[in-house]
Amino acid sequence: MADDQKALRLARTIWPYTGLQLASITVNLANAITAVVYPWLVYDLSGNASWMGIIAALTLFPAIFGSAFGGIIAEKVGIRRMALVSVAMGTAAAVAAAAAHDAGMLTIGLLASLALLGAILDGPGGIAIEARVPEIARLARLPLIRANAIDDLVDNGAAIAGPAIAAFLVAVASTTVLLWIIAVINLVAAVLVALSVPRFRLRRIAGSTVGQMKAGLGFIFGQPTLRSALILAGIGTSVFVAVEGIALPAILRTEGRSAALLGMFLAAASAGAIASNVALAFASQAPSLRGIFSTAFAGLAAGVALLLFGRSVPIMIASGAMLGVAAGPLSPVFATLLQSSVPKDLRANVIGISMSLVLLGAPAAALVTGVALDSFGATAVLVACSALLLSCALAALAMSGLRGVTASLSGEAARQE
């Protein structure tokens, strides 16, 4: 324990935050390339959109259960150890996929198994770091919401480069080479995480795992603001998975479009999110939660509806940019709300359960979207997604839990205006 405290005192520099941002750049670069390459690969191996939904659901199920218990596991195992094991598993799965494709042995079943393996510890690993963002931000002398906004800014910067790089690589490199590139980037990310995560002291967890879960759920459902934000975040996440992860790649693939078009859309979305994150990072006043949620969901509904007018390059770029600008503030504001409104001894537990609840509907959304595309076509799916997002915008205006509430820029608890 003394060694851990000493290590944490020595880490009182900007490096842990900076190092984790560098790791985030590499992870998001790999994810952005994967978002372009994998849907094409899944469709080529299976020949239908339903399998795309199945693969997406398989990667989401472990994230749901892993997040639910991730906070408890991370505190018991150790923040640093949990983060390292998580990135190592993801790297191993990426390397195995590349090696299998190189050997001509990659089938849809093996790809599904490796996707499951790579995602199985994402929940605990992500929660391990997320729960310690307030401490890492303090080491870097950054206000919490600014640290989260910069984090999203970095993520989206990598997400701009990723699709652009992927679109180029798809045209000039084989699938095997692309898979090896993803594996190498994941390996670099694992090294950066190992060099950056401080040695936090293990916490003594009072009570059983079931008792901890009850305490976390009791806190969440006892907070009207957090409860309202979770409902909206869950619906928004499910629709995002449906549109960006399943519907759009499948629509473009069945229409015979290039992967470069998907890359342009994702890059435009990231650029739009960066614009929102920059504004939020340097905002001088705490944002209104009701205003952010209602405006964001209205913008998301309009961005999806724009795709109904076609999939030309200008429309795809405009739709992506609109979705990015609208969604940009949601992640840092929601993360700040979670990190700042929960007592320190419950933080990892509540964050983990909250992330699990947010993802709860995503596997069903992925499966339903894949089947709906094969059964009813693109127009019906896009109309349904846009309508659902617009209903969330209207619901946010009516939710009493969001009325008059702001997220503190300093990282203190959300407060009434």
List keywords for this structure.
80% helix; disordered C terminus; 417 residues; two-stranded antiparallel ribbon; mainly alpha
Provide an overview of this structure:
α2 packs antiparallel against α3, α2 crosses α11 and α3 packs antiparallel against α11. β1 and β2 form a beta hairpin. The chain is mostly helical.
Please provide a brief summary of the model.
The protein is mostly helical. Helix content is 80%, strand content 1%. It has 18 helices and two strands.
Supply Rg.
20 Å
User: What structural class do helix, strand and pairing data support?
Assistant: mainly alpha
Chain oligomer state: single chain
Mean pLDDT metric: 75
Put simply, the count of helices is 18
- Give me the count of strands: 2
Strand order of the largest sheet: 1-2
Separation of the first and last Cα atoms: 41 Å
Share in β-strands: under 5%
Helix/strand order, N-terminal first: HHHHHHHHHHHHHHHHHHEE
> Into which percent range does the helicity of residues fall?
over 70%
Question: Helix and strand layout, with pairings?
Answer:
Elements: H1 2-10, H2 15-46, H3 49-77, H4 79-102, H5 108-119, H6 122-130, H7 133-139, H8 144-172, H9 175-196, H10 209-221, H11 224-254, H12 259-281, H13 289-306, H14 313-327, H15 330-341, H16 347-359, H17 362-376, H18 378-398, E1 405-406, E2 415-416
Antiparallel strand pairs: 1-2
Helix pairs in contact: 2-3, 2-8, 2-9, 2-11, 2-12, 3-4, 3-5, 3-6, 3-11, 3-16, 3-17, 4-5, 4-6, 4-9, 6-16, 8-12, 8-15, 10-16, 11-12, 11-13, 11-16, 11-17, 11-18, 12-14, 13-14, 13-18, 17-18
